[in-house]
Amino acid sequence: MRAAERNEPQESSPSTTARITALLTAFRPGDDALGVSELARRTGLPKTSTHRLVRHMLANGLLERDGDAVRLGLRLFEIGQLATRQRGLVDAARPHLADLREATRNTVHLAVLEGTEVVYLDVLRGPDAPRLPSRIGGRFPAHATGVGKAILAYSGADVLDTVLAAGLRPVSKKTITSSAVLRGQLARIRDSGIAYDREESGVGVVCAAGPLLDGAGRAVAAISISGWSNRMRTDRIAPAVRTAALTLSRTVTLR
Amino acid sequence: MRAAERNEPQESSPSTTARITALLTAFRPGDDALGVSELARRTGLPKTSTHRLVRHMLANGLLERDGDAVRLGLRLFEIGQLATRQRGLVDAARPHLADLREATRNTVHLAVLEGTEVVYLDVLRGPDAPRLPSRIGGRFPAHATGVGKAILAYSGADVLDTVLAAGLRPVSKKTITSSAVLRGQLARIRDSGIAYDREESGVGVVCAAGPLLDGAGRAVAAISISGWSNRMRTDRIAPAVRTAALTLSRTVTLR
DNA sequence: CACATGCGTGCCGCTGAGCGGAACGAACCG
DNA sequence: CGGTTCGTTCCGCTCAGCGGCACGCATGTG
Question: pTM for the whole thing?
Fold first, then answer.
């Protein structure tokens, strides 16, 4: 067969690298340890190939044995820490986030955008805050979160197009599902420098977020404070969020 | 040209998995982004092969572009978080560690043993504590830390033999370098349930640590509090550490 | 300014590491 | 005790990985 055009949608890569990545990504938050057959099922790989790859990954510390099953290796945790450390973001933001939590007694977030979702780099939980589903290293649809909207407001049009093309999936009853409404909010965020989330990511939870901008004025990350809608006044804490975001923008860019 | 600086792992593994692992572990804490040639130099792989692998890893999100160079991908951070989450340790320990920091205003650690070193799973820095070199996801020789000695005291003889065979490398002027002294201390730790570090990991820094034990009485991790030697009385905080360690031991095992 | 050096990258023939269907022993279940 | 599913091994085929070679392009140096 003649391979006509080589448009690689990264979906069907028969390369060993893709297989290893598939195996690593097969682990989900709820899992403890997985067996070879289960991994083969999730990745779609033949069981024999899965078995061989698993053995290699065990030998290299990417996976660890747990009886007959395997789990993600500690080495991956070490590598993962270096991944964000290279951004310098987490270290720079930590003290500011700690101050924000201290002052508000609510939960603060640091997140970046990847594709159509935000990934939480840091989560500092506050004593008065609701038990949020956000998790360090976890994901959430960008359009349904304060940090996500803050980043989208200061990103290129192509980024927003990607998000809209993927569809505004609702995660709460008040999640924005209209692209027109979202565009309107993003414009207002650009005016005020603050993004609000009013029960769009979870019932009874509100949030104020601010973007961390680079020298060109594009968002590289965002921070936020989340709390109960009946206990936290978002307009009261907005100045603190905005101040911290501005300070961090300066710190991070001239690193 | 000397091959001394080379990474230590298995020398004769020409497998693709080993190469990918080598590339991932080529990144060190200080680095920002690395070029293909630098990666080839560190891993010992031919530059062409490095280039091809890097391209594959970029396509799969294991690496990310930064100009001409590459850095560890965000996906690795997500995977790394799942790696420790599967242990459940971090989540279970968090509140207890936070309490310990609150009570002592010093820095608390959660660490596990891997090989001859401890890996820090969590670090909560206290306002009164010295600026320690410990880092989440970072490593330190087990024999030179409180957490390390706490774990070694409740580990099998083979584990200790491995550590001794690797040599008791000094990291401070007071680091234990005699296997006899270390054995003696481990015996005393087993009696008291508490491990002390008296400036063995750093000048002016002391620490009290306690092991987290499984049902069989073997250490799976350890926690510690570190502070200035002239400001913190280790025997005063030892009971708190021991209590938290015992509570956590119970929580973690019957998860 | 010519030269040297090091970078990222593309080309291409060769080969052995990866591949996966088939099969096996050991649980586990109804 | 037949059926299912598990982890694991065997083995011949083949194509993905391999890496020497070379190019274009910045830098730096004599």
Answer: 0.89
